[in-house]
Amino acid sequence: MTLKKRFPFRLGTTSYILPADLLPNVEYLAPLVEDVELVLFEVDDGPSNLPDAAEQAELARLAARFDLTYTVHLPLDLRLAGDGSDGHVSMVKARRVIEHTRALNPFAYVLHLDGREARDGAIDTAVWERQAVRALQIVTGWVGDAARLCVENLDHYPPAFWDGVLTQAGGISRCVDVGHLWLEGHDPLPFLRSHLGRARVIHLHGVAERDHSSLDHAPPQALKAVLLYLIEQQYRGVVTIEVFSDEDLTTSLAAIQGALGME
After folding, report:
1. Is 79 exposed, middle or buried (0-12, 13-18, 19+ CB in 10 A)?
2. Separation in Å, CA 201 to CA 31, 87, 117, 120, 192
3. What digits encode the pLDDT tens for the residues 132-160?
């Protein structure tokens, strides 16, 4: 089932729909979606799926052939090292992911900020915000375009937790994760109304015994309300169905069709 070219936004999903490597997933997904979120990892002294030059060339070829874009999810929650440098492992791995995907001209780099110490009161919020802004400035230098960096709202944090950082950080974009808002019992529409203009990417997933479940676990009226709002606003960013199996993708696409009464 494909819903390509049916919406003002680019509908996408993750690069881990099949239990296979990166390229087989993208080859499978390219006819079905308009964007693939590349889920990349690199284990110290262990496996890595960072694309080499040949894989990057093939990913670029598939993008050109199928009018496909890529979003890239950075692997670890970003924070500076204790000395205020970019030596923390989260920054080191982020830089390597960016280096291995720059040739793909990603539509966006989605990232989490590590705000646990500020959330839990271990450090002053203003201190953490300054550190987070500095981390974003460093990563912007690697990417070359602040707007392509998208800070995602996370579960176990208040929805407004990131506002101070994003106000200070200027041109950084947002990734609005609707599934995380549903998980925490929040209505996503007020959040979307406030932040859609800065949202380059939106994540959708259902909540069952876990989040990142099929959208057939989202109440149809709630899913319909989000989709209709995005359509009415002529949202031009990427909407990622953030699930990790073929069954969850297939049933999610069916849930979207059903919610909107599409043929």
Report:
1. buried
2. 20, 28, 26, 28, 11
3. 999 999 999 999 999 999 999 999 999 99
Q: How many helices (H) does the chain have, and how many strands (E)?
A: 10, 8
Instruction: Report helix, strand or coil for 143.
Output: helix
Instruction: Report how far residue 74's alpha carbon sits from residue 72's, in angstroms, rounded to the nearest whole number.
Output: 6
Number of residues written out for the chain: 263
In Å, how far from its chain's centre is CA 142?
A: 18
> What separation in angstroms does the CA of 238 have from each of 107, 124, 231, 235?
8, 34, 12, 8
pLDDT per residue as tens digits for the range 166-208: 999 989 999 999 999 999 999 999 999 999 999 999 999 999 9
Q: What is the pTM of this model?
A: 0.97
Q: What gap in Å lies between CA 133 and CA 110, rounded to an integer?
A: 15
Cβ–Cβ < 8 Å for 257, 222 = no
